[in-house]
Structure formats: structure tokens, C-alpha cells
């Protein structure tokens, strides 16, 4: 019987702070410690049968589990000074709120960085577990909801790399899931890196991306396209 050959493990990207970007604070008097981790990723739209792609993904990865969450994007209406411990800083113009498995996470996602000769999207990310009271805090700081969407699919993982096969859905006025935004699923290949590991991370991603071709060709994707109507989104994907 033919046995699919797994890609050789490339040199893993150097990570300065491990695999989780986050902020911890045990009580109001404790200092806040934030890890400075960058998310390196490639994206694509799956146009081949998902069953064939999943077989390839399972042959490359070590584990599989479903993912399902709702993401809300809040934008600032005013320029606000940051906290006292971050002198001369300002609060981010955009904050993401994610509901996943009955937990609420506040996500800071930096503006994608364009790096010469690095074929990957690079963004600074910080995740903070929070509660419903955070919405009051957002309102007091002048943030308003810009848009929201649901994500459903699967995550395949191996070593320091994750592969996501997901669909995005609009949120209906009553808060439930609407239609799928595109008939094809989205593929995201992702790993985390420190500031000095961008080149290694990009090489790591592209080594695995080669084994996913021709099932999917990985490209960059901007979630702001979710604010467009379906016709505009389809036109962008078909360019």
C-alpha cells in the first residue's frame, strides 16, 4: 500500500516567549506582564474537494480538533492615552473580542508588517482572557463595534505549526449564524515567532505550504474584506 511521505521537519522558528501570547493580572494591584509574540501566517482558499485536502492534512499533522468561535471587532472613536505603566502610549485603534467555548478573549492584533523577502503575513498578537464586564470598559474608552463574524472548522497541529480549515459566516440581526460568506473553505497555515525569527518562521511555513500545493495555493488574506458584500468578496477572491 502506498504510504504518503511526510515532509521532513525543517528548522523550527525561534520563539522568544513560547507558544502563547498573553497578558496576566491576578488582581488590581498586580503589575501586568505582556509577551511580545508575532503571528506568522499564510492563507488560501480551498477550491479542491475538502475530503482530499483533509487526507493530506492528516498525513502531515499530528493532531486534529474542531474550532468554533465568534469574533467581534471594536474600533476606537477617540484617541485615548494608554495606562500609566505604558508611558506616552495610546490605546490600539482596533480590539478583537472572541467568544470560544464559553470563554471571552480580548485580542490585540497589530497591523500586518510588510517584510522584504519574507513570504508570510506578520502581526503582533496579544490574547487576554476576560469577562463580560470588559464591554463596559470598552464603551467607557470610546470603542464601538465595527463588524462581527462566526468561524467554524478544524485545526490540525504539529510541533510549532497549526493548519486551520474554516468557514466564515455573517452574524444575523438576532445574533445567530448566517450564510457562509464564500462557497470555498479558507486555509490558514500559522506559527508564532519572536522578533528575530521571522525569516526562519517564513521558511518553516513555506516548506509545509509546498506539500499542500496544488490542493491550495496560499495567499495573504485581510479580514476587513468581511465588511464588504458577497459580490465584492467573490470578486476579490477571483482576481
Automatic annotation (TrEMBL):
Subcellular location: Nucleus
Keywords: Activator, Nucleus, Transcription, Transcription regulation
Gene3D superfamilies with a match to the protein in the record: Hypothetical Protein Pfu-838710-001 (2.40.320.10)
One GO MF term attached to the UniProt entry: transcription coregulator activity
Protein's GO biological process: positive regulation of transcription initiation by RNA polymerase II
InterPro entries: Mediator_Med18 (IPR019095)
Keyword Nucleus: yes
Origin superkingdom: Eukaryota
Keyword flag Phosphoprotein: no
GO CC annotation: core mediator complex; mediator complex
Pfam families for the chain: Med18
PANTHER family to which the protein is assigned, alphabetical: MEDIATOR OF RNA POLYMERASE II TRANSCRIPTION SUBUNIT 18 (PTHR13321:SF2), MEDIATOR OF RNA POLYMERASE II TRANSCRIPTION, SUBUNIT 18 (PTHR13321)
Similarity remark: Belongs to the Mediator complex subunit 18 family.
Subunit structure: Component of the Mediator complex.
Biological function: Component of the Mediator complex, a coactivator involved in the regulated transcription of nearly all RNA polymerase II-dependent genes. Mediator functions as a bridge to convey information from gene-specific regulatory proteins to the basal RNA polymerase II transcription machinery. Mediator is recruited to promoters by direct interactions with regulatory proteins and serves as a scaffold for the assembly of a functional preinitiation complex with RNA polymerase II and the general transcription factors.
Protein name, entry field: Mediator of RNA polymerase II transcription subunit 18
The species this protein was found in: Dictyostelium purpureum
Gene field: MED18
